[in-house]
Specification:
The chain is an all-alpha fold and about 575 residues long. It is built from 34 helices and no strands.
Length: about 575
């Protein structure tokens, strides 16, 4: 942010920067005004100079009046005049004079701190921060400390800001009453500066300072992206006690993102038991049960959520209601209860994403053999933004691809990608379509371009490697590509499926079955079932293979890979 722009908005935001809840207003006693005729004239003259385009003269007159009267309102007016005139140094002079004349006043501290930050005098701002915190009443110090990351957020050099803040909060760290908020603030600053190890250390120190405080837990959840063992141990310990349901849910979500499903399920079970009225816990547990192939239990939990949440009109809860109803429709559809699936879809909130709803309706119609109606449902979705138009195109293509209409999907996607040649989502979907059409050179070109432009995205590595493995060609290169995807997301069951499949193609049956069994356990899926069953079949374990294939048919009877495998191996379920 430019310096002068910071100054221009500064006076309007300083007062609210550390605002605490207002105390009940008490009518002050009437006091005699300190203004005499001369002083009144001086203040009037200062305002007239300011309004007539001479803010420098107006500032000097107003600051002189403030010194004479020691009136906080006049000091504040002098600061405001300087800020409006874009004179940071003059504003700082007025604020410092205010503090010098009225040492017990708190308000000038806030001005001094923010003006120093606007002037990029960061080390001096750190000293001002120490004074500001120290001068506040004890009851307000933790709130002020928690607001520090927001106050320092305009600074571009995040590491420098974190260093200055940590030094400024040393006194707060040493005091039991403020230690936890100080360490939490330091951790937030270190996290925002990309200093993750220092942020983790701060979170652990904050937790040690006060085991009952939620701040270090919230900070730790934001740092758990790579599953740090020290943080996870701390969070596991914290979750053994009584914590807010939102925090336990946040931890469960983090574990799900790390694909630690059993641990997540344990936290969600505790959440449901201790806070049965907390609807979102039932939703997330139901979705996780469905994700792990436990459809009967998933249905029970999702129905309970729908009932608990039926009258909640909050947008976020309405989105959850839509997610639950769609999943219930999917469960019913897989069980062949098509009428029940339609009933679930008929209860969708008015705010439901129209593209998601149309995709689910089209899938249901397709299962009933009403293919033309299914395509029409998707085609008739109205879009109002380019992003919605793209999502509609992707939904149509996916439906066509999954229902053996890859040529139609290609005709839809190719012009869309020509119009947006840098769109990775369209390119990725087109690559999948071209593979179905056996246009392998075009598919490889698309995927290699994605690998070049998005080297941290594992999907293109995995898709190209799997394609080679599935066609039983260039197996060493296929394995190298898949291993690059594994390095990016080690626990992804679909990528593990690709790794197991290429191991099978390489003749490493023992390794393949071990990898595929782990992938299938993590994510019961029809395609993984097809691969695991084939490896077991080739190894002579035909009964186990048959059991896995039958489970796969229950998961998704029309899965193309599974159906092709059963036909090729002449297996009759």
């Amino acid at each position: 942010m430019k310096f002068w722009f910071r100054l221009a908005i500064l006076s309007s935001c300083i007062v609210g920067a550390w605002a605490q809840p207002a105390a009940p207003q008490v009518e002050p006693p009437v006091e005699q005004s300190a203004l005499d005729a001369v002083l009144f004239y001086q203040i009037l003259l200062g305002e007239m100079n300011t309004r007539q385009g001479s803010p420098g003269a107006g500032f000097s007159i107003m600051l002189d009046a403030a010194r004479k009267t020691r009136d906080p309102a006049l000091f504040q007016r002098a600061v405001d005049i300087a800020l409006q005139a874009r004179s940071g140094d003059a504003a700082l002079q007025a604020a410092q004079t205010w503090k010098r004349e009225l040492p017990q006043a708190i308000e000038p501290n806030r001005y001094i701190l923010q003006i120093l930050l606007a002037l990029n005098r960061v080390e001096e701002a750190g000293l001002a921060l120490t004074v500001s915190i120290h001068d506040l009443p004890a009851a307000e110090q933790n709130g002020a400390i928690a607001s520090v990351p927001r106050i320092f957020s305009p600074l571009q050099d995040k590491k420098r800001a974190a260093d200055v803040v940590e030094k400024a909060l040393q006194r707060a760290i040493a005091q039991a009453e403020t230690a936890v908020s100080a360490w939490t603030t330091i951790g937030r600053m270190r996290r925002d500066a990309g200093q993750l190890e220092l942020a983790i250390q701060a979170a652990l120190k904050g937790r040690a300072a006060d085991h009952s405080a939620p701040g270090p837990i919230i900070l730790s959840l934001s740092l758990m992206g790579n599953g740090n063992p020290s943080l996870q141990n701390m969070l596991n310990e914290a979750m053994q006690g009584q914590v807010l349901p939102e925090l336990r849910l946040g931890y469960a979500r983090t574990l799900i993102a790390l694909q630690q499903y059993p641990q997540a399920m344990q936290q969600l079970a505790l959440l449901n038991a201790r806070h049965p009225e907390f609807a979102e816990g039932w939703l997330i547990r139901g979705l996780l049960l469905q994700e792990t192939g436990q459809s009967t239990q998933a249905e029970q939990h999702l129905i309970h959520f729908v009932q608990l949440n039926a009258k909640n009109t909050e947008p976020e809860q309405q989105a959850g209601q839509a997610e639950a109803l769609m999943t219930l429709a999917q469960i019913a559809q897989r069980q062949g209860q098509l009428e029940r699936a339609g009933q679930w879809l008929s209860q969708m909130p008015a705010t439901t994403d129209p593209i998601k709803l149309a995709s689910r309706q089209a899938d249901l119609l397709a299962q009933q053999g009403r293919m033309d109606e299914a395509r029409l449902v998707l085609a008739q979705v109205k879009t109002t933004t380019p992003e919605q138009t793209k999502r509609k195109t992707l939904a149509q293509s996916q439906w066509l691809r999954e229902h053996q209409q890859a040529a139609a999907a290609y005709s839809l996607l190719k012009p869309a990608l020509n119009a947006q040649p840098d769109d990775a989502d369209l390119a990725s979907e087109l690559a999948m379509v071209t593979e179905k059409l056996k246009r392998f050179d075009e598919m490889e070109s698309l995927l290699r371009q994605l690998i070049k432009t998005r080297p941290q995205d594992p999907q293109a590595f995995n898709a190209l490697g799997y394609s080679f493995a599935d066609r039983n060609i260039r197996l060493d290169e296929a394995r190298a590509l898949i291993e690059q995807a594994v390095a990016l997301v080690p626990q992804d069951p679909y990528i593990q499926d690709s790794l197991g499949w290429v191991a099978f193609r390489q003749g490493k049956h023992g390794e393949a079955v071990q990898i595929l069994q782990a992938a299938y356990k993590a994510k019961p899926d029809a395609e993984i079932a097809a691969h695991l069953g084939e490896v077991l079949w080739v190894m002579g374990q035909t009964e186990q293979a048959a059991r896995i294939w039958r489970e796969g048919l229950l998961l998704k009877a029309d899965n193309e890979t599974l159906q092709e495998t059963l036909k090729r191996l002449n297996f009759k379920p």
